[in-house]
Specification:
about 90 residues; mainly alpha; rod-shaped
């Protein structure tokens, strides 16, 4: 091969390599973008499920709170009376 032919072969090889790098990069970027989109969809679905479950738990706790608040107030009153008696601040 003559020297001009060698340079042409080098140029063609370099152009082919740059083309391959461009194609692989574009393909990888599209694949990565679609994978991230799929993960976002899954996370949004999980978020909706968790919000629904937390709302259910909140409703249950609100119902329980109505039942237990009077019991806790009575318990708090009894503990306060015991502590006043033990520490000597009880007027009786």
């Amino acid at each position: 091969m003559t020297e001009p032919q060698v340079w042409v072969v080098i140029g063609v090889f370099a152009a082919a390599m740059f083309g391959m790098v461009g194609i692989v990069t574009t393909s990888f970027t599209r694949t990565l973008t679609s994978a991230i989109g799929g993960v976002r969809i899954e996370i949004n679905g999980l978020r909706e499920t968790m919000n629904a479950r937390f709302e259910t738990i909140d409703v249950k706790f609100e119902a329980m709170d109505a039942n237990f608040s009077s019991k806790f107030e009575a318990l708090d009153r009894d503990i306060a009376a015991l502590s006043r008696h033990v520490f000597g601040t009880d007027p009786h």
